[in-house]
Amino acid sequence: MKNNNWIILFVLSTLLISSSCTEPKNNQVTMVSQEEMKEIMNLDNTQLIDVREMSDFESEHLEGAQNIVYDEDFELNISKLDKSQPVAVYCKTGGRSEKCVKILVEAGFEKIYDLEGGYEAWTYKDNLE
Prior knowledge:
five-stranded parallel sheet; alpha/beta; Rhodanese-like domain-containing protein; Rhodanese-like_dom; Oxidized Rhodanese, domain 1; Rhodanese-like_dom_sf; GlpE_sulfurtransferase; 5 strands
């Protein structure tokens, strides 16, 4: 009976170790609501990125955001950011930011927030209040 306990313990330990090594890397990406984004924006170390066209950014944007347009230079431009600090990304409706998030993950950023519904959802929510 003692041998069976050791075998069971060994199998469970092996499964636990192997499952922890195969967790998906996308756990560093979090979709956030407007309320959550407001809290994230108040953190000192969050890098807030607006990936819309410059004209959209110049027209209006979230306070504290920097404009890094999603274009052919996006990967080069994000290399200037600190990968160890959280990044919060938004675009107009969420489509471009989803693509940017994938690039940020591949580039090695540790914590990424994506504004659900983009800037349009943000302004729509503010107009309801």
